[in-house]
Design a protein that fits this description.
Helix 3 runs parallel beside helix 4. The chain is built from 8 helices and 11 strands. 26% of the residues lie in helices and 25% in strands. With 279 residues, the protein is α/β, with parallel strands linked by helices. The two termini are 15 Å apart. The protein has 2 domains: 82 residues, NAD(P)-binding Rossmann-like Domain (Rossmann fold, 3-Layer(aba) Sandwich); 167 residues, Dihydrodipicolinate Reductase, domain 2. Strands 1-11-10-9-5-8-7-6 form an 8-stranded mixed β-sheet, covered by helices on one side.
Length: 279
């Protein structure tokens, strides 16, 4: 058996250069194509409710691609319902291929040195992933962004935050059998005796003014099969106080355990246990 402990520095983030809280009226006068028609590359960082749709003026991706722009899109790419999102994805992919353009979404953890190491070890070992467990625990008490607390606008914590880990799990283990996905959640509550009550929500967020369907779930857990039969499990919670989040992703395969702890921080660690048994 061999155990290795790697301190791994965080991969530098990216900057969204078009980010703004735009109303529908402002979007209509965005004149995006006129502004960037002579450019070659675009970075799309507007909030997700203002793009990611086939309907004008929310079809910014399509307008950029039609103008011949290579495009970087900040996640989440959309908050549309699944049936509308699938049609949007198909239209974007078809136009991208037709124009021969590069298109990327801001899943920066794919380029984290620890993930590169984990991917390399899986390839070297030559065995499929058996299971992945991911945890993303949000620190909420200093989060003074009303937009984020409204699920209709942000998409909710899985779409807005844990989407990074959903992407990593697919990157490491392959595609998901969507028919196998199951999830449970602890709903928001104003009753102090309920597990969904949060005592330290910043008053600027005015969460109590939102409808129940607009409020964020406090804890969400989901599990599924990957198409190769491996198991995936994801837990997200809005629970911690202070500024620091906690996150980890753990991978198991025959003779292998890898655990990446705190990937958002410079002090993140990758713990690896390997071992081979021969008859």
């Amino acid at each position: 058996m061999h155990c290795t402990h790697y301190p791994v520095g965080i991969y530098g983030g990216f900057i969204s250069v078009i980010f703004a809280k735009l109303s529908m009226a402002i979007l209509r006068i965005f004149a995006l194509i006129q502004i960037i028609i002579d450019q070659h590359f675009g970075v799309l960082g507007v909030p997700p409710l203002y793009h990611g749709s086939l309907e004008s003026p929310l079809d910014i991706e399509l307008q950029c691609l039609k103008a011949g722009l290579h495009l970087f899109i900040e996640k989440p790419v959309s908050v549309q319902p699944p049936e509308k999102f699938e049609a949007y994805v198909q239209a974007v992919e078809e136009l991208q291929k037709e124009k021969g353009l590069a298109l990327s979404v801001g899943y920066m953890f794919r380029y984290h040195p620890a993930i590169t190491k984990m991917k390399s070890i899986l390839e070297q070992q030559g065995r499929p992933v058996m299971g992945i467990n991911a945890r993303y625990i949000c620190a909420y008490s200093e989060m003074d962004h009303p937009f984020w607390w409204n699920k209709d606008k942000s998409g909710g914590p899985i779409v807005e935050q844990a989407t990074h880990f959903c992407d990593l799990m697919r990157y490491l283990a392959g595609e998901v059998d969507e028919n196998s996905v199951s999830a449970l959640a602890v709903s928001a509550s104003d009753d102090k005796d309920d597990p969904g009550y949060l005592a330290a929500v910043h008053p600027i967020n005015k969460e109590s003014a939102l409808t129940q369907n607009q409020r964020l779930p406090r804890l969400t857990t989901s599990h599924w099969f990957f198409t190769n039969g491996a198991l995936g499990n994801l837990t997200h919670a809005v629970a911690l106080h202070g500024p620091k989040y906690e996150a980890a992703i753990e991978v198991w395969a025959d003779g292998l355990r890898m655990a990446l702890e705190e990937p958002y921080f410079p002090e993140c660690k990758l713990r690896i246990r390997t071992g081979w048994y021969s008859m």
